[in-house]
């Protein structure tokens, strides 16, 4: 090995009889950081490795659309408002499928999608179990349960303000979907306090179903075609300054 001045590598003398465990006699190999070269291909794969997870929003929005369509028919009286028949759809279709979509969005680091899907999947599961309790509970338990559900809906009404405001800077379709959910929560709260009957909630459930169906179809076609096909509408408002938007566009 060369003894040049820029070399900082010291080798341990293999012929030495000194004790290796003795820190005073042990010699170290010092490699400067500038001498450690990683292959460029390895760095690119570590830093910019693409996600292998599929876009989950078509699954979550389709489950929301089908569930809301089924519930809207029950609110309009088209189908029997049977609690036993609603529980499987509410828990397994809307709750379970939206939960899966939220978990996948979390792995994809989609904060908005994971927050909305996971929060509302838990709401549908809770409502499903509450309906199950109503079916087999006493009249007093049902009244107390309805009071607790109304308080929960008030909490979700406050929570939904944040996704509604965020959707302003995403696209029009998502904003109107979140707006219909906000109005649905408001009407359901009034329904539990016996202000309205079930039909106003059925109207908003139907609107949510149609908008969610459109979103799921648009997103599915976009992922397959590699670009937008069905319009989602431009964002209605941006919280960023114009200079930051121009930098992102460039």
What does this structure look like?
This is Inner membrane protein yaah. It comes from Anaeramoeba flamelloides. Its main location: membrane. Keywords: Membrane, Transmembrane, Transmembrane helix. It holds the Pfam family Gpr1_Fun34_YaaH. The chain has 250 residues and is an all-alpha fold. It is built from 9 helices and no strands. The relative contact order is 0.10. The N terminus is likely disordered.
Quick overview:
By secondary structure, the chain is an all-alpha fold. The protein has helices at 40-47, 57-76, 83-107, 111-136, 139-159, 161-166, 172-192, 199-225, 242-249.
Cα distance, first to last residue? 51 Å
Biggest pleated-sheet summary: none
List the total number of helices. Answer: 9
Please tell me how large the radius of gyration is: 29 Å
The coarse overall form would be globular
* Overall number of strands: 0
Instruction: Give the H and E element order.
Output: HHHHHHHHH
Overall mean confidence score, pLDDT: 79
Helix content: 55-70%
Membrane topology: Multi-pass membrane protein
Keywords: Membrane, Transmembrane, Transmembrane helix
Organism: Anaeramoeba flamelloides
Protein name: Inner membrane protein yaah
